Fold these 4 entries.
Entry 1:
Amino acid sequence: MAHTPQPVPVSRTDFLGRIFPWLLPVLLFFSITGTSRFAAVVLAVVAILFSIGRVPVANLRNRLSPLTAAVFFYSLICLLSGLWCHFGLYAARESAKTLAAFSIFALVLMRVKREHLRGLLKTLDGVLAVIALLCIDASSLQLLSRGFSWVMALFKAGYPLETMGYETGVRITGIFSNANVSAGLLAFGLILSLYLIRTEESPRMRLVLFVGLGVESLAFFLSFSMGAMASFGLTCLVYLLCSGKGNRLSLLILMLESVLATVICSFAATPFLGISGAAALVPILLSLLCGPAIWVLDCFAGQPLLAVLKGRDKAVAVAAVVLVALTVCYGVLAYNLTGDLTLESGVTISRAIYPAAGEYTLTCDGDDVQAVIYSQTEAELMMHTNTVLYEGSLSDAAFTVPEGSRVVWFQLSGTGTVRSVTLSDGTQLPLGYTLLPEFAANRIQGLWANQNFIQRLVFFRDGLKLWQASPLIGWGVGGVEGQLTSVQSFYYESKYIHNQFIQIMDEAGVLGLAAFVGMLGSAVWMLTRRRKDADPLLAMLAACLTMMVAHSMTEVVWSTQIYQSAVFVLFAVLILWNSSPEAAPVSKPAKGRVAAGAAWGLIGIFALLLSGHLLAAGQLEKLDPNNISSEEFLSSLETMDRLDVYDDSDYKVNLMANYLRFDTAVGRGMAEKYAQQLLATEEYDACYQVANYYYLPLRDFTGFYDAIQTGLLQERSNPDAWNSAFHLFQNIFDALDADDMEAYIAGIVSTGALMDETNETLMAPITLDEGNAALLACARTLQDVPGEAAQGVLASLLSE
C-alpha cells in the first residue's frame, strides 16, 4: 500500500538550517570569486558541515534525478582525471575549481527549500549584479574592487588591482581580468533579471531588480565580448520562442528597453573608463542609473505600447519584422557610416582595410599624424604576428601590400583631426564611427580577418591532435596547459582549447565527453518533460542552457570556477524545480543516506587531497636542511611526497639528488627509483632535473641526453625550452674531462638533429640564441676530433 509522504519537520536543533538562508548570498559569492585551492577547501568543509543532518539528507533523497547523477559523475571524472595528470600543479588548480562548483551544487540541493526557489534565483541574481558592479568599478574608480581584492587575498585568491581594469580603447576586463569570461557569467544575470522582473508583483522589488538589470547590462556591454554577444543573441531568440505566445511581446519590449538604455549609458561612460580622480566615479553612477532608466522606459513607453499592441497579432508581427529590419539597417549603417577622427595625445587608434596586393600611396585631409601600417597573412593571423609596411607621417605613407595578405592595419597616433584618408586605388580608410562608441568601433576592426577567431580554429585543431594521443582517458585536468606544446605547429601559451567539448576530450577522453554530454542531455530532458508547463521559469532555464552550450563552443568559460559554479547552481535550480515539495519518504530512506554519503565522499576525499597538497607545499617552504639531520630531512621529504598526490615533483627531485649523495647501494637504488618516477611523467622540467641531478653526477651521458630529449618532446614548439637545454649543455662543460668529450659532443649533435626534425613540422621554426647556435655548429664540426683537441676548441668557444 502506498504511503503519503509527510512534511519534513523543522528540527529545533537544526541551528545550521536556520542560519543557512542568511549565509547563502555569501556562500554563492564566495563559490564564484574564491578562485584558489585554499578557498575551495574552505568551501568544501562548509558544504559538508551544513549538509549533515536528517533534513538535508531527506531533501537530497527527494531531489535525486538523472541530472543530479550526471553532475556527480561529471565532477567525479574531472576530479579523478587530475590524479593521472602529469602536470601536478596545473591539475591541483583545475581540480579546485570543480571541487568548489560541486560543493555549492550539493549544498544548494540539500539545504534550499523548494518553496524558496525564487529566493535562490534572486540571491544568485543579486550576487551577479554585485560582481557586475565590481567589474565596472575595477575599470574606473577601483574603490570597491580594492576592498574586494584585500578580502579575497585572505583566502589566497589573487585579484591584483594592476591586472584589473580597462583594455584601453577596447573594453573593460573587470575583476577577473578577462572580458570574455566576465561577459559569459553576466549573461546569466541578464537572463535571471529579465525573468524576475517579469514575474515580480511588488513594485518596490521590481525597481530593485531593474537596478540589478542595469548594472549587469552595462557591464556586459562594456565587456564587449563578441563571442558572448553572439551567444547571447541566440539565447534571447530561444528565450522568446520558449516564452509562449502571450508572453513574447512583453519580453521583447523589455529586452529592447534594456538595449536602448544600455547603449546610451555606454556612450556616456566610455570617456571615463581607465582614468583616475573624481571623474572615474561616472561609470559607477551610470551603472546604477541604467536600471532606473530602463524602468522609466518600461513604465512610460513599454507598458503603454504593450497595452496598445495586445491582441493585435498581425500588427505585432509587422512591427517585429520592421524592428528586425531597422536593427539590421542600424548595424549596417553603424559599420559603414564614418566621419572625422579626432586623436588625443597618448591614445592609439587602429583601423583595418582589405586591399589587394600591390603598391599604394595615400591622400590625407586633416592634421598630420603618425602611422604604423602593417599587414597580416593567414599564417600571421594564426600566430598573432605581422609584417610592418610603413612607419612615419601618415601624409607621406607609401607601402606595398604583399601577396597573401588578408588584412592591412593602420595604427594612428598623435594629436589632431583626420577628416579622410584615401588609398591610391580609391579605398577609404574608416575613421570616426558616428553611431558607435569608440570601444565598439575598435572591437569590430578586422572583422573579416579576425585573428582571435582564426586562432580559435588553431586551438581546436591542436586540441583534436592532443586528444588523438590519449583518446580514452585524456591527459587529466590541467594536462592541456602542459601538453599542448607537444602538438603545436607554432608556440603559443594557452591553458585551454576554447571549446568545452574538445577540452573535456583532452582532459578525460571519451569518458569525460560522455559525462559532459550526458549532463547537458539530462538538463535538456528535464526541461522537455515540462515543455507544456506554463511556468515562465521553463523559458528562463531554457535560455540559460542555450547560453551554456553556445558560449562553450568558442570560449574558455567552462574551465573557470566563476562560470562553473554559477552553472552548477542553475542546474540545482532545474533539479529543485522538478522535485516534489519537501517530504520525508517512507520507502527507501536509505537512498538519501547513500546519495549524501556519495556527495560527502566526493567532496571530503578531494578536499583532503587538496589539503595534503597545500600542507606539503607549506612544509617544503619551511624545511631547512641546515637545522636537521640528513635522515630527518629525507624523512620529511618522503612524508611530503606521500601527502601531495598532485605536485610531488619538487619532493622527488630533492629525494633523488640527496639519496644519490649517499654512496651506498640503498642510496643509489632510492635515487634511481625517484629518477624513474620523474622520467615517467615525460614532462620537460622533471626530465631536465633528472638529467642534471641524477645522470650527470653519474657521468651517464646516454641517460642525460635521453632525459633531455624526452622532455623536449613535451615542449617541442617552445624555443625557450630548447634554448634552456643548450644552456645546460654549456653550463656543464667545465665539469667534464677530455674522456667525456665524445659523448658530450654526440649528445649535442643528436639534440640538434631532433630540433631540425621538429622544425620540419613547425610553422615557426625553433631558433637558438647566438651562443647556443654557435655551440651546436661547433659540435657538428668536432664529431671526429679527439677528446683533448675537441675540449680545447670548445673551451675557447665557451670562454668568449
Note: The first strand starts at residue 165 and ends at 167.
Entry 2:
Amino acid sequence: MAKTTKKEPLQKKDKSKSETSKTWEITKQHKIVLGCLLVLFSIALSLAFISFYIHGQQDQSAVAELANRAETVQNWLGKFGAFLADLIVYNGFGLASFLFVRLFFLSGIFLILGLSSKKLKGIWFWDLFALIIISILFGFFATSLPELGGVVGYELNLFLQDYIGKTGTLLTLLFGLIIYVIFKLKLSPERIQSVFENTKKEIKTDLGSITVNKNDSAYNLEEFAITDESGLEDIVLKPKTSQFEINKESLKPTISNSSEINLDPISKPITVPPPFTNETADSSDSFVIETAPEEDIIEENLASRLVSDFGLFDPTLDLSNYKYPTIELLKEYSTGGITINQEELEENKNKIVDTLRNYKIEIAQIKATVGPSVTLYEIVPEAGIRISKIKSLEDDIALSLSALGIRIIAPIPGKGTIGIEVPNKNPTMVSMKSVIGSAKFQEAEMELPIALGKTISNETFVVDLAKMPHLLMAGATGQGKSVGLNAVLTSLLYKKHPAEVKFVLVDPKKVELTLFNKIERHYLAKLPDTEDAIITDNAKVVNTLNSLCVEMDNRYSLLKDAMVRNIKEYNDKFKARKLNPENGHRFLPYIILVVDEFADLIMTAGKEVEVPIARLAQLARAIGIHLIIATQRPSVNVITGLIKANFPARIAFRVTSKIDSRTILDTQGADQLIGRGDMLYTNGNDVVRVQCAFIDTPEVEKITDFIGSQKAYATAYLLPEFVGEDSGINLDMDISERDTLFREAAEIIVNAQQGSASLLQRKLKLGYNRAGRLIDQLEAAGIVGPFEGSKARSVNILDMSSLDQFFNNEQNN
C-alpha cells in the first residue's frame, strides 16, 4: 500500500507538466489569429499615416492631451491614430514610415499562409535598412519639411554633418543606396546591358516585320509561315501556344532552351486557295514548335544563404565562417546549349514515317522533343495497329536513319504514345555549371540533392539520395562512370555543409578520387590511426565496412533512446535541444560510402566484403548511411540478389550486350546508348534517359582547392575502431605501465556496468585512442570481457566493494 501511495503524486506532477506544455504550445490557429491581427494593424497604420499628412497640423496640439476626452482630433483612427502617427511619422522616420505598413502586412500574410520565416527575415532586414536611408535622405534634402524625414532622419542628418560634412553625408547615403540596389534589387552592369540589348533587338524585329514584302519567297520567321511567289500562305507554322521564335538568336546554343516539335500529318489545315488542294499529305505536314518553360539560371550558390533558426542548436558553428564553393569555379562550355537543326528533324521524321508505311503502319500524329544528345519522336499509331509490330521494327528504323543507338519505348509510361529515341548528329555537351546553376537544383528542398544531368526535354534532372536510398552505377569501361561519381560528389559539396555530410571513399584504381584528399578534414571520414582518408588498399576496406556496421548499430541505439524512427527526426530533436549530449547524444551527419570499382573488391576479398555491404544495404537507410557502388557489370557473382534487391535506384551507362543491360536494369536499352555520359536512370519505376553532366579534372581540383584552403576540423571524421575476432589483447600485467586514469576508468565502468570506449570518452573527456588503450588494459586486468562486435563488453566486477577488493589484492600481491 505504501508503494502505491508514493506513485500517485508523481503521476499528478507528470499530468500537470503535460497540461502546462500543451497550454504553451503554439498551434496553427494561434498563428492565423496573430497574422490576421498584424494585417488589420497594418491597415490601421496606413489610415493613421495618410490622415496625418492631411490633418496632422490640426491634431498636433491635441496629441499632448489625449487623456482629455473633450479633445477632438481629425485623424481617421481617432486619438490612437493621431498618437501613432505623431510617434512614428513626426517623431520617427517621416514618409519612410509607410514601410512599417508593408512589413506588418507581409508578416501577417506569412503567418496566415504558414510560409518559411527565412525569407521574411530578409524582408525585415532590407526594409529597415531602406527605412533609415530614406529617412536621412529626406532629412538632408527637405530640412524645411520635418514631416518628410521625421525627427530621426533630421537628427541623424545633423549628426552625420557634424562629423563628415554635407558632402560626406551625401556620399554615405549614396553608398547605402548602392548597397541596397546591388544586394536587394540584384542590379548589375551585365543586367543593365542585357536590358538595353533586348530592347534594341525588339526594335529591330519590329522594324523588320514592317518592311517584309508579301511577294518574298522565303520563310517569314516572325509569323512562322511559308509563302509562295503570289503571296498566298501555304503552311502556317505558328500555334497559339507557341513561345519559341525561330530566328538567328534562337538557333544559337543556349543553356536552358528545350523544344518539342509536333509533326502532325493529319492536323486540320488552314484554309488555302484551290490551286494548292492537290498537294500530297507529306507536303502539307505542319511543323508546330513548342518550347518547354525555360529554366532559371542562378549565378550564386543559394546554399550559402541558409540561416539557422534562432534558438536551435546549429551544427555548423564549429565552421561558422565556411564558404560554399561558388559557381564560377565550374567551366562554362561554349557548346552548352541546344542547337535546333530543323532540316535534320524533318529528314528523320520523313524516314520514320516512310519506314512504318512500308510495313503498312499508318501514323495519326508524330511529335519530336529535342534533347542535348537525343531526340525523342513520339508517335500515335492509327487504331488497330499492334504495338509489338512497331517494336519489332527497331533494326529497320535504325537502318533507314543510318544512326547508332535507336531505342524504342513501347509504350511510353504515363502517355498514350510510342517513343523512338534517335541520337543527334551533333550532340551537345551538358556542363556541370549549367546543372548546378539551375533553379531546380538550387531551390531543391531535399536532404541529399544530386544533379545528374539533363533529360531529353532539356530539364535538369535532380534526385534525392536520401530517398533512393542506395545507388548502383554500372557501365562498360570509358562510358562515364567516374565522371558520374564526380558529378554526384560535386552536387553534395555545393549543397551541404561539412558538418552535415561525410564521405567514405574507396578507390581501388588509386587515381580517380585522389583529388578529394584536399578536403579530408572537411568532408571525409576514416578509421582512427590511418594516414590516408581515401582507401586504396582492398585489405583496409573490410575494416572500414565493418566499422560502418558498428557505427550503424551505435546510431540505432541512439535513435532508440531518443524514441525516433530516422536520422532526420533525430537531428531535428537534437537541434531543438530535446536530447542531452551527456547521455551520449550528438548531431549525426549523413555518411556516404562511395566505391569506384566494386568488382575488384569482390575478387580480392569476397565474402568479407559481401556480408557488411549486405547489412548496410538492408539496414543503414534510416540512420543516414547511404551507398554508391560503381562496377562494370553487376553480375550475380559480383552483386548478389540480396544486395541488388536493396539497390532500387540504378544508373546504367552504355554496355555492350542486351544481357548486360538486363543484368543492370532488368530491362534492355542500355546497349542502345551512345556513350559519352548517355545513361538510363531507374528507381524501380520508369526508366529515364539522361545526359550526364560533364565535369573535368581541373574543375574538381578548383573546388577542392577552394574548400581545402578554408578553416577545417582538427581531424577527419573518425569512424568507430573495428577489432576483428582474431585479434587478441596480450598486454603486460605490469601495474606500472597502466594509464594514470586506470582506477577512475574502472570505477566508471563498474558503476555503469557497461564496458565501452565511448563511455570513457564522454566521462573522462578523452580521445578515442587513449580510451581504447584503457579498455584494453581493463580487459587484460580481467575487469571487462573480450570484444563482442557491436555489443558493449561485459563487466566481470559487479559492484564497487568488489572492485576495491580487486585493487587491494593487487597491491598485496
Note: The chain has 25 helices and 20 strands.
Entry 3:
Amino acid sequence: MFKKFKYEPGFLISDLICLVLFLVFWFLLPSRLFVAPTSFVIEASNGQLLSAAIARDGQWRFPVADSVPDKFNKCIIAFEDKRFYKHAGIDILALGRAMRQNFKAKSVVSGGSTLSMQVIRLYRKEDRTLTQKLIEMLLALRLEVRCSKSEILALYAANAPFGSNVVGLEAAAWRYFGRSANSLSWGEMATLAVLPNSPSLVHPGKNATKLIKKRNDLLDKLAALHYIDQATANLSKFEPIPGKPQQLPQNAQHLLNRFKQERASLGISSTRIRSTLDESLQLKVNALLKRYNNRYRANDINNIAALVLDVNTGSVKSYVGNIYQPDNTELESHVDMIKAPRSPGSTLKPLLYASMLNDGFIMPHTLIPDIPTQIGGYSPQNYDLGYDGAIPADRALSRSLNIPAVKMLQTYKYQRFYDKLKQLGFSTLNKPADYYGLSLILGGSEVTMWDLAKTYMGMARTLKHFNEFSGKYNPNDYDAPVYVSSKRDTRRDQENAQINSVFDHGAIWSAFNAMEELMRPGDEGLWEQFSSSQRVAWKTGTSFGFRDAWAVGLTPGYVVCVWVGNADGEGRPGLTGIDAAAPVLFDIFRQLPNGKWFKTPESKLKKIWVCKQSGYKAGEYCTDKIEEMVPSAGEKTGICPYHKLVHLDPTGSWQVTDRCESTTQMLHKPWFVLPPSMEYYYKIKNSDYKPLPPFKDGCGDMGNSYVMDMIYPRNNTSVYIPIEFDGTRGKVVLNATHRDPNIKIYWHIDDEYLATTKSFHQLAVSPAAGKHTLTLVDEHGERLSLVFTVLEKEASSRQHQ
C-alpha cells in the first residue's frame, strides 16, 4: 500500500546547504548590535533628566529608551520610510523608485533604504557600495525577524546621528531644545527627524534656511498623511530652529558620579537609571544651598552638602554632594561631601545617650557630672567654657555639653561604644578603639554623611515600625538608603523580625525626645528663628578647629543631614553647626510635608518612681518622687546616690554626731547632697540647692562626710605653666572647695606650707617642673592629698601638638 521512500544523496546535500544557509542567516547579527559607550544618565523618580555625563568616546549618546515618542515615530516614518509597517526590512517599491530617479538624473538623488536598513548601516558603518547595499538588505531582513517594529524604531532613535557629537533622539532633544523628547512640539520633533539624513544642517548660519525648508516640507507631509491637521503644520512652521547646543542639566552631578562608581556593585547593566530623587525637592535644595553658599563664601566657606532620606521607603529624596561649580576649580566643588570622611563633632552624642539608655546605664534625666575634668592628659571643654556641676543627661545632650558626654562615655566604656558604631555600619572607623579613646564622642573619629544619615534613618524606621512588627525589630531598617527606583520585596519582613536590635524602641523614643529640646548654651535666643510647625528631633555638631559644621534632624517621614565647610579641611571662624548648618536644615524641612509624631511605644516603656532631683531610681531618702515612663532597661540602673539621711541639732541649723548631741534630741532629715566639686558649680546654676549645714562646734564628722574636694588639678594629672609675654614664668591657679563656706584651708606643696585661704579657695603658684604632692588641711583637721605633675616646656609642646 505504501511505497518505501528512497532518500537520495542529493536531497541530503541540499538539506545541509539549506541548514548552513539558515544558520548563517540566523547568526548574521550579534546578540547586541551597538556596543559604543553610552552617557551616564540620572533621572528623577518622575522620569525627568537630572544629570548626564558625556560618553567615553566624547559623544552625547543616551542608552536605548524603553519607548520612542509617538511624534518621532510618525515624523521619521513620514520622512524616511512611509511603508515601514508594511515591509519586512526591504521596500521593493522604494528601491524601484530610487533606481528610476537615479538613472534619469545619472547621479544619486534618491535612496531606497528602509529604517531597518539604516539601523544596519549605523551598526556596520561601512562605505555604501553596491555590495554593502546588498549585505544591508540581507541583514535588515534578519533584523526584522529578530526585533519588533517598535524595537527597530528604538534602536534607530537611540543611535542615529543628530549633528556635532550628538547621537540619539533623547540626547538631541536635551542638547538642542533643553527638554526631554516626550515634551517636544511637532515643529521641534520634525526638526530632529530630518537631521539624521543631513546632520550638518543643525549648525546655525548658512544651513538654517535648508533646515527650515526640510522641516516645513516634513510638516506638510505629516498633514498630508493626516497625522496632524494643516493648521497645526502651519503654526509649527513659525517655531525657531535650534542654535548653539545647550548644556545638559547638572542637578544631581554627585549622585551621577556615585552611580558611575557603584554601577557594577549594584548589578545594573545600563548606564541610565530612574532614581528615587524627587525632582521638585532636588531643585529646591539645590537652589537653597546655592543661596547659602553665596552668603558663606564671604567668610571663605566654600562648600555645602545636604542629604534627604525618606524614612518610609528607605530611599534618597535629595542628594546634593556639593555646590557644583566646575568652572571654579579652587572651590573643589567636584568633591562629594556626602561620601567624604569628616569629623562628626557632636553628632554622635545622641547615639551614646541611646546606647546607655538601651543598656541600663542611665535613665533619661540621670544627673551627669559637669566639672573640670582631665583624663590621662585629655581635658575636654564645654562650648561655653563653663560648668554646671551636674546636669540631667537629656539636657546635657540637648545643650551639647562636652564634659558630661565624656563622663558618660567613660562610664559606658569607649570600647563598647566603638563596637556599637561598627554594628551600626560606620565604615570609616578603620583604627582600633584605643586609637580614638574618649575623644570618640567629641569628633575624634571620622564619619561620612551617608553613614550618619543612614543610622538616624534606621532608628526612625525602627521606631516607626513598632506597631507594624508587633514590637519586634526589622533587621533591614538599618540597611543603606537606596537611590535606584525599585520596590523592595517586603513579603518576608514580618517572619524575619527579631526580638532584639541595636537600640530598643524605648531608648530611641527617649533619645528623640531629648533631641527635640533645641537648646545650646549662649544661643537660646537663636533657636527662635527655627520655629517650625512640625516636631523635629535634631542635633548640631562642630569639629575641632571649626572645620566642619553639621546638622542632622528627623521626623517620622524624613531624615535631613547638612554639612558646611571647606573640602580641603580649612577651618573658619563662625563655622559652627548652630550658625552655619542648622538654618539650612530647617529651611529644607520647610520644603517637606508635615506629619504626625512617632507613637509612644508604651509596651517598651515602664513606669518607675524616679527621684526628681537626681533622675535616678528613687531610694528611701528621696523626698520628691515622680512616676515616669522610661526604657525597660531603666530597671537595671542604681538607686539615687545623692540623697542621704543627715543628723541635725534640734534647731536644724547644725550637723551633729553622737559626740556632741544626744541621739534622742537629733533631727533626722533626708538631704540632697552632691560631692563638693559638683556642688561648687551646681549651686551657682541652681538657686534652690541647699548645701548641708556646717557641723556644730565640737562635733567632728569623723572623716565620713567628704567635706572638701579639689577642683583643679585633679589627682594624677599634668599641668603646664606658660611663659608670659614679658618672658617671665607664669603661674597655675589651684582651686578647691569646702562645704563650710567660712572654713579656713591650709595649703602645702611637698610638705612646705604655702598659704591660708578662707571662703574663696584659690591659690596661684609656680612650682618647678616635676611631680609634686599637694596637701590641704582645714581647721578641723580634715586632710586632702593628691599628686600632680608640672610639665617641662618641651614635653608640653609635644603633648599639645
Note: DSSP finds 22 helices and 24 strands in the chain.
Entry 4:
Amino acid sequence: MSKGKKRTILMMLCCLIAASCLYETMFRNEMEAANESLPMKKDNHEVTIASEMRALPGGMGMIAENEHLQLFIDKKTTEVSVREKRNGQVWSTNPIDHAKDTIATAINKTNLASQLIISYFNDKGHESFMNNEEESIKKNQFEIALVDNGVKITYEIGSSEKGLSSIPKAVGKERFEERILNKIADEAVRNKLRTRFFYNEEKQQYERKKMQDYVVKDVVAVLESIGYTAEDAQEDNQMVESGDQAENVAPRFTIPLIYQLEGENLIARIATDEVMDSDAFPLHTMQLLPFFGATDNEAEGYMFVPDGSGALIYLNNNNHAARAYEVPLYGIDQTPLQNSRTEVQYTQVSRFPVFGMKQENHAMFAIIEQGDAQATITADTSGKLNSYNRVGATFKMKDMEPVVFRTGSVTKQVPKYSEMYDSGLQIRYAFLEDSSADYTGMANYYRDYLIKHYGLTRHKSGSDTPFVLELIGSIPVRKNFLGIPYPSTEAVTTYSQAIEILESLQKRDISQIQLKYSGWFNKGVQHRLPSSIKLDSILGGKKMFEKLLNYAEENNIEVYPDVAFQRVYENGKGFQALKDATRFLNRKSAKSFDDDIVTTNPSDMLYYLLSPRKLTGVVDKFLKNYESFDSDGVSLRDLGEDLNSDVTSHETVNRQEAIGIIGENLQKIKKVTGKIMLSGGNAYTLPYAKTIVNAPLTSSEFNIADEDVPFYSMVLHGYVDYVGTPINLGRDQDQRTALLKTLETGSNVFYQWFYAQPTMIRDTKLNNLYSPHYGDWFEEAVQLYKESNAILRDVQDQTIKGHRKLADEVFETTFEQGKKIIVNYNKSAVTVDDISIEAQGYRVIGGGL
C-alpha cells in the first residue's frame, strides 16, 4: 500500500473517532440535561443507569418500568413518582410544588417534603416527632439501592454520628480556652458553648454533656466556624482522660423504604425487620407516605375514608374548624391501659383497611396489605397546616405504658415499652380513571381484590332475602335469699317460645329466617368461659333445645347459637384473670368497662379480655362439645369485632399476630359448624362469614366529613349477607327510615327480640335492651320485611355497581343487571331528573337483564 493511501485511511479513522467522541459528548450532555447520572448500589456494586432513564419534569429519572407504569426518583430529595402509561397521569410521594406553599411553616414545611414522619418517646415517656426530610435527607444520611422492579431507600433519621465525632468528649482546660473559646468573637455564642461542657475541676478538663441532636448541630456549626475539625476532637480525646462522662443521648432511627411496581399497582413497604431504634428513644409511630397523591387547594374531588360504611371528605371543603380525621382500623386495642381509657371519638369502627383520593378524572385507591392491625387512617383538608388535601396511614410500632414502682414512701412512674412490631408494613396503590375514578370504582376494585385473595363466592339466586332475627334466651339477674343477694338467671325466651315465634313468622309467609340465639348455655347471655357447654335448664333442657334445632332443620331455618370467646364475663369456672386475660406492661388483667352516660368515664366492668394465646385452647374444647348438638351454624359475638394484643414478660402477641390466630380458629370453626354468623365483620374475617350482623350502614359523621357512602355494602353485596344494628334498637326507631336504609344499602331486615315483657330486664345488666319484646314489633317487622323483600329478592345475588347522590338526602343505588332504587330521606316530596319521589319514599326503576 502506498504512503498516500495509508495517510488517507488514517485521516478517515481519525475523523470517525472524532465524530464518535462528539456524538458521545452530545448524547451525554442531553442525558445530563434531562437528569443527572444516578449512582446506585446493587449487589454491592456501583451502577449507573442514566442512559436507561427517561426524565420527568423536576429532574426525576426513571428506575423501573413495566407495561402499565413507570417509576421515577429524584436522587437528591428521594421523592418518588409513578406515571400511568395509559394516560400520562403522575402520582407523587410529595406535592411537586410544595416549596412554594405559603401556609406551611417550620416543621409543617419540611413535612411536605418527607416520605416518613415518625414519633418517638424520650426517657420520661413524652412523645416527640421528626421527619426524614429534616433529619435524613438534608443531612445526606440515606442510601439508594436498586431492587427488582423498584428501589430501596435506607434512611438514617436523627442524630448524625459524623457531627458528634466533631465534638471532643473531653479537652484540657487551657486547650479548651485557647483553641476554642478565645477563637469565638461573639461573647453570647462563647458563653452558650461553654454551657455545653462540664468543667471537671479535679481533672482540670472540660467534658461534653449529654446533647440532643439539635444541640449537636449547633455546636458542630460553631466549631467549624473557628476551624476546629473532627481530627482536632480525636486528638483532644487522646490527650486527656475522657473518663465515663455522659455520651450523647439523641434519637437515631434506621428505616428502609421500598418501592416496587407490581402489574398495575405501586407497592410501598417498610422492611420492619431492618428498622432500628434505641432503648433511650423507642420508636412509637410511623406515617408512611403521608402526602402520596396529595392535591392542592384548587383541585376538585374528594378523599375516601373507611369510617363505618364509608365517608367522603370533599377537597378544599373550607371546614377549617374541624379536627383532622384520625381513626384506627378495627377499633382500638383494648389491652394497653392508656388505650382502653382513651376517649373514643368515633361511633363506627373502620372495618376495611383501605383509603382513597379522587382528583378530577383520576383516582388513587390504597389497600393496606401488611400492618393493617397497627394502622390508623388519617386525612385532612387544605388551609390548616398547609395548602394540600391528603390521606394516608400511620402505623404503631411500639406501645408505652407508665408503670408505677413504690419503695417505701417513694413512688416513681417509669415508662415501659412493648416489643417493636416487625411483621411488615405494606400499602398497595391502585390507579383508576374516568368512570372508575370514584368511590364506586374503588368498591368494585376492592371487591375483585377480596375475591382474588380471600376467595369470596357469589350468592345463589332464586330465594327470598333473609329475615335475620336475634332471640335472647336467658339473662343474668340478682336474687335474694334471706336478704343475701346472689347471681342467677331468668328466662326471657325459652326454647319452646322460640319455636312459637318462628311458627308465627312462617304463618305470615316469612320462610327464609336466620336465627341468632343468644343466652342458651353457661348461665345466659353473659355466659361463662365456653371451654365447656352446659345448656341453661331454665330454658327447657337438652330435649327442648334439640327440638328447636330439629324444627329449624325441617323448616329450612338457619340457627346460629351465639358464643363469645374473647369476652369473658366471669372470673373462675375455667378462667383465671391473672393467667388467661390479656395483659400489658403493667401486668394487670385487661378489662372492658361501660361508660358513664354523664361523665363518659369508665364505670361498671363489662368483661375480661381473653388472651389471644389462650383462644385456640378454648375454641378446641368448645368445638369438641358443640359437635354433639348437630348444629350446622354458630354465631360468633366477638371474633369479628375485637382485636387485642397481649404482652407478657416472656411473650408478646401484637394485633397483627392476633389476626393470624383468629383466622386459624375461624377456619377450624367453619369446618366443624358449616356456617358462621359474625358480628362486625372486620376484613380479615370475611372468608369465613355467611352472615354479618351489626355491619356498618352509616359513618361516625365526623365534622370533617361531608357525605356518607355505602362502601361496605357495595363491596359485599351479592357475596355475604349483612345487616346493620337491630331495627328496633335504632336511635329513632323510625320504621320508614330503616326501610329506606335497607333499600339504599341492599342490606337485610334485622330485629332483636325476646318473648317476655320488658319489665323482666329492669335493674339488670341488660337495661340497654329497652324495647325488644317481640309482640311490640311483630306486625311492623312483617310489613317492613315483605316490602323490602319484594324489591330486593331478585338482586340479592347481584353486586351494587353504582351509587350516587342525586340531591340532598336523595340517593340512587344501581345493581349489577340495571335495577335502580332511588330513596328520598326527606320529609317532603322531591323531583329529581323528572322523577317524583314522595316524602320518605322510594322509586324502583328497571331491572332484569
Note: Residues 82 and 461 are 42 Å apart (CA to CA).
